[in-house]
Design goal:
The complex is a heterodimer. Chain A is mostly loops. In chain A, about 10% of the residues lie in helices and about 5% in strands. In chain A, strand 1 (about 10) and strand 2 (about 20) form a beta hairpin. Chain B has a domain at about 135-280. By secondary structure, chain B is an alpha+beta fold. Classes of the chains: A little secondary structure, B alpha+beta.
Chain lengths: ~100, ~280
């Protein structure tokens, strides 16, 4: 039984991770009824980008190396990418 | 928002400013309308044959009837039957033909919208303009000196533009156009020949919120190095500014357009995710 105030904490998304926010995993196409722990990272349909979240410093000059080494995304990094919805709605005047 | 199918059939342009979900619903309606037009075309062809049958009966009547009045009726039946058949067949050929010819375009928009929907802001409307008929404008016409009496014409058909916003606040703007080259010449046997070649170009611009992604310029080299595309696609331009990224890709095979489109987005966002990660670590 899912509590009434429960919102799904999982990361979903195709291009970038964002919070799922569903109130129930039942019938969820992303986590498939709660069976997939990290739907964003475990996607297999990014044809040509099998290592989507991995960054080899040699391939990303001036970025990964400058930040002090490997940039393979960990779950903790993933949490940093996932922002509450309100932040996405923030100031867009910059863009 | 329901589409005006009749207007779409006559103008050949689909335009909308609505959430992606609504655009997808419109595309389902366009698909339905196209199928209905195909049914109407089939019915017109059938009616054309029926008219032709009446015309043939009229001819038989005119040939074999003995009474003068019946001969006249036969002639009238023959003339009107054949005329109606021709009119119906021409109408059948033309009715809603653009939607059938360019079915792949709205199918592509549908697949693109489905893909964008996964990360698109459901509240933000997308602005779409989709050409469903030949709107090519002539760019240049010149002598083609390689062949006797050779000429070449270059034209461009800007058939898709779409603008919207992702959940991270990044604003995307995409245009797809077809560049067409048509060469005509006379071969050694004196026959006039035409050769046709076309290429599609996708221009994709992402304007990103700087507080989330920081300065994007350090990504340029990595983006160029790590961008992956389908076999018939080649990169024609990469520009990375402080807050925006622009990517232009040429696609030779129309069948690979959607794949190229999705791979462009993935390539850009792979770089942006890295930028966002670095920005997060700096805070």
């Amino acid at each position: 039984m899912t509590p009434s105030d429960w919102t799904c904490p999982r990361r979903i998304g195709f291009l970038f991770p964002h919070p799922c926010g569903r109130t129930s995993p039942v019938g969820c196409p992303d986590c498939q009824n709660g069976q997939v722990q990290d739907p964003y990272a475990q996607r297999k349909d990014r044809g040509g980008y099998d290592n989507y979240g991995d960054y080899d410093p040699a391939d990303w000059p001036g970025t990964v190396a400058a930040s002090g080494g490997a940039m393979d995304f960990t779950e903790a990094d993933g949490e940093n990418l996932v922002k509450p919805q309100e932040e996405f709605e923030g100031d867009l005047t910059e863009s | 928002m329901a589409i005006d199918a009749e207007k779409l059939r006559t103008t050949g342009v689909y335009e909308a400013q609505a959430p992606l979900e609504s655009v997808l619903a419109d595309i389902a309606e366009i698909d339905k309308a196209e199928r209905q037009y195909a049914q109407v075309r089939k019915a017109k062809v059938r009616h054309g044959f029926l008219s032709l049958g009446i015309g043939v009966l009229g001819i038989l009547l005119a040939v074999f009837a003995e009474a003068g009045a019946l001969v006249l009726v036969g002639v009238l039946m023959a003339l009107s039957g054949v005329a109606c058949a021709v009119i119906l067949w021409v109408a059948a050929y033309r009715y809603g033909r653009n939607l059938t010819t360019y079915r792949w375009r709205f199918e592509l928009l549908g697949r693109l919208a489905e893909s964008l929907q996964q990360d698109g802001d459901p509240k933000a409307p997308v602005k779409v303009s989709l050409g469903l008929k030949d709107r090519a404008r002539l760019l240049k016409e010149e002598i083609w000196p390689a062949r006797p009496r050779g000429k070449q014409r270059f034209s461009e058909d800007d058939w898709l533009s779409i603008q919207g916003r992702f959940l991270d606040g990044a604003e995307f703007s995409e245009t797809v156009y077809e560049l067409i080259r048509r060469r005509t010449y006379v071969n050694p046997r004196g026959k006039s020949k035409t050769k046709y070649r076309s290429r599609h170009f996708i221009g994709l611009r992402l304007a990103c919120p700087q507080e989330l992604y920081g300065d994007l310029r350090p990504l340029e080299e990595g983006l160029k190095k790590n961008l992956r595309l389908p076999a018939s696609a080649t990169v024609r331009g990469v520009k990375v500014g402080e807050k925006a990224v622009f990517l232009k890709v040429r696609v030779a095979e129309a069948a690979e357009l959607i794949q190229a489109n999705v791979m462009m987005l993935l390539g850009l966002y792979r770089a942006l995710n890295l930028a966002r990660q670095m920005q997060g670590r700096q805070k």
